[in-house]
Amino acid sequence: MDSLRGKTIYEALGGPEGIRSLVEAFYPKVQQEPLLGPLFPEDITPVIEKQYLFLSQFFGGPPLYSEQYGHPMMRARHMPFPVTVERAEAWLGCMSRALAETVSDPELRAAVLERLKGPAYHFINS
Question: Where are the annotated coiled coils located (predicted)?
Fold first, then answer.
C-alpha cells in the first residue's frame, strides 16, 4: 500500500499524537451509539487510556499495553460483555467516522479499518 511505504500503521497515523487523536475522536461516538454506549462506564477516561495503549501496540508502536497490563488477551477481556455482530459493526462504524475526522489519507483509513475488522469480529460472543 502506497500510503504506508515501509512504515507501520502506528507511524503512518503519526505515532503517539495520531493514536491519541484517533482514540479521542472515537470514544464520544461510542458513547453516543445506542448499541455501544450502555456497555461503557460513565467515566470513560480509563477506557480511552487503555485503548490508546492497545492501539499503539496493535498498530506496530511500542508495547505499551503489554508493559502495563500483560498480554492483551482481548477476546477474553471482552467476554463479560455481550458482543454481537451488530455491535461489532457499530464499533467499526464509530471507528470509521473517527478516522474520517483524524486521518486525511483514504488508503490509510482503509488499512486501519481492515486491520481492526479481524479483532472486532473475533470478539463476537453473543
Answer: none
